[in-house]
Amino acid sequence: MANHKSALKRIRETEKRRLHNRYYAKTMRNALRDLRATTDKAQAEEQLPKVQRLLDKLAKTNIIHKNKAANLKSSVAKHVNSLK
């Protein structure tokens, strides 16, 4: 158990941040899963900018690494372009 007041605060802050990051990471995974499951090109092209915007925001706030965001954006763009 923590011995200092600042350590107790750090525990509270860390838990709050962890839950916040988990929420956005899960939201990102769900958005990617929905986009990859789409077989309709028009619907996928409509979803793509939203997913890319979400990935950019998460990379900007260091929830995911910027290179991971770039790789994910590339892979979903490739998926959308491959649809007929």
Distance between the termini: 58 Å
- Mean pLDDT rating: 96
Residue stretches low in confidence (pLDDT < 50, at least 5 long) are: none
Number of helices: 3
**Strand segment count:** 0
Class of secondary structure makeup: mainly alpha
Task: Specify Rg, calculated over alpha carbons.
Answer: 17 Å
Strand content: under 5%
Largest sheet: none
Residues in helix, %: over 70%
SSE series: HHH
Overall shape: elongated
Short description:
The chain is mostly helical and 84 residues long. Helices cover 83% and strands 0% of the residues.
Molecular structure report:
With 84 residues, the protein is mainly alpha-helical. 83% of the residues lie in helices and 0% in strands. It has three helices and no strands. The protein has helices at 5-37, 41-60, 66-82. Helix 1 packs antiparallel against helix 2 (41-60) and helix 2 (41-60) runs antiparallel to helix 3 (66-82). The protein is elongated.
What is the strand and helix layout of this fold?
Blueprint lengths: L4 H33 L3 H20 L5 H17 L2
Helix pairs in contact: 1-2, 2-3
For this entry, give a set of tags:
mainly alpha, 84 residues, elongated, 3 helices
